[in-house]
Amino acid sequence: QVQLVESGGGLVQAGGSLRLSCAASGSIFSIDDMGWYRQAPGKQRELVAVVTSGGSTNYADSVKGRFTISRDNAKITVYLQMNSLKAEDTAVYYCNARRYGSPAPRNYWGQGTQVTVSS
Q: Quick check: 107 and 98 in contact, CB under 8 A?
């Protein structure tokens, strides 16, 4: 099992910045990808950004150029630096850790942290 603990959410004005952190514990040797998803009220959970164990990254088009994901493999922690925040970034942000294996990848989730951007 993998446990994920998020921190860093809050209320910020449009144009501002926030940094989310997610620390993993437990069976951390099994983690491959780590990432962030978000879910706004009435909407489905969507990918924000992901970083592989090798450091490759992928971003949702809506956050490219504004958000940066990074990973500290020694601390098994993933960060999401969010700049130039917009009202539409308001959502609950969830940390994700993924382990690839058979028969299917296994996903672990944090409890979520609220990010609210006021316009």
A: yes
Q: What is the pLDDT of residues 15-30, one digit of tens each?
A: 999 999 999 998 877 7
Q: What does pLDDT average to over the chain?
A: 95
The CA distance from 4 to 110, in Å, is 5
What lies within 8 Å, CB to CB, of 75 at 6+ separation is 23
Residue 16 burial (CB < 10 Å; 0-12/13-18/19+)? middle
The Cα 112–Cα 37 span in angstroms is 9
Structure tokens at 107: 């996903």
Outline where DSSP puts E strands in the chain.
2-7, 10-13, 18-26, 33-39, 46-51, 57-59, 67-72, 77-82, 91-99, 106-109, 113-118
Tokens 């924000």 — which residue? 48
Q: How many CB atoms lie within 10 A of CB 10?
A: 13
